[in-house]
Design a protein that fits this description.
Blueprint lengths: L10 E7 L5 E13 L2 E6 L4 E4 L2 E4 L4 E5 L5 E6 L6 E13 L10 E14 L4 E5 L1 H10 L4 H20 L6 H13 L7
Length: 190
């Protein structure tokens, strides 16, 4: 079940877990809508992100694209204090619904697969992040060989597409959704 029948601004939860089912990041978000790239959710400034042992309120708004493939989530920030514009979580089975696959438009879930593609505005640029965590966890959690192959190839492809700023990894695509999020004028929570 897609969340595309929800009204923009409807509160949802985006819950990540690790391959073994243990909880990971949980984000307070709102539904924004869908386009040809997939589903878009947003997190207004001051809303909470938390995981076991850590939590923070967002400094500025961000939007996340969940493509139909469910193998990554593209987050684009506006006004990030360190200039982080793009953060892509490589993933497995990201979808609207619970961890067992039951439909739930108010809950997005997915498995965080460690590898990330990051773009910082400025000198640092774009890079593949958390390769060390990927190397550790693919052994610890026994990621299947086909999953490893797919995600490694996808990571390289995504890094190249982010560097080239191809759609939807360009600024203009996400800015439309960031503007829609800010137009909702949702209150800060922290």
């Amino acid at each position: 079940m897609s969340a595309d029948h929800l009204d923009p601004g409807t509160e949802i939860v985006f819950q990540w877990r690790k391959w073994d089912g243990s909880p990971h990041w949980r984000h307070q978000c709102v539904w924004l809508g869908s386009d040809s790239w997939g589903d878009w959710v947003g997190q207004p400034a001051g809303w909470l992100s938390e995981r076991p042992g850590r939590s923070f309120a967002t400094h500025g708004p961000n939007v996340t694209l969940v493509p139909a493939s469910g193998d990554y989530a593209l987050t684009v920030n506006r006004d990030h204090p360190q200039g982080m514009r793009i953060y892509i979580d490589l993933a497995w089975d990201v979808h609207a619904g619970d961890a067992e696959g039951a439909p739930d438009p108010l809950l997005f879930t997915g498995i965080d697969m460690d590898l990330d593609v990051v773009r910082i505005d400025g000198e640092r640029g774009t890079w593949l992040d958390d390769v060390d965590e990927w190397d550790e966890h693919r052994v610890r959690y026994a990621y299947p060989a086909d999953v490893q192959e797919h995600l490694l190839a996808l990571a390289v492809d995504l890094e190249q597409r982010v560097r080239a700023q191809l759609e939807p990894f360009d600024d203009a695509t996400a800015d439309v959704w960031l503007d829609r999020l800010e137009a909702l004028a949702l209150p800060r929570r922290a």
